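Check out a protein:
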Amino acid sequence: QVQLKESGGGSAQTGESLKLSCEVSLYGHQSYCLAWFRQGSGNEREVVARISSDGMRRYQDSMKRRFTISKDDATNTLYLEMAGLVPEDTDIYYCAATLWTCPRQAPIHPNYWGQGIQVTVSA
């Protein structure tokens, strides 16, 4: 079973930066899609960014100028660097994964989720 665990959340003030990490246990799978979601205000979680096993990245338009997704295959770690934080970024952020496919444009529906981590941005 694929396992995911987030870390690095916490509090920041407007304009500061935070870096989230996710320990990813893929158990030998070579083709996958890793992503960051946040809870949002609706019933469905909102995708923030995603990266494929070959390094292709995609961001939500509202976040791509401030957020950067990356991964380190040597340590099996997924990252989300968040710069220029604003209070509207306050949310619970989730690491997520799906195996085999990572489309460039089509929506993804992760099969595996972390527990979520709180990010709080104050003015």
Notes: The chain is about 0% helix and 50% strand. The mean pLDDT is 94. The first strand starts at residue 3 and ends at 7.
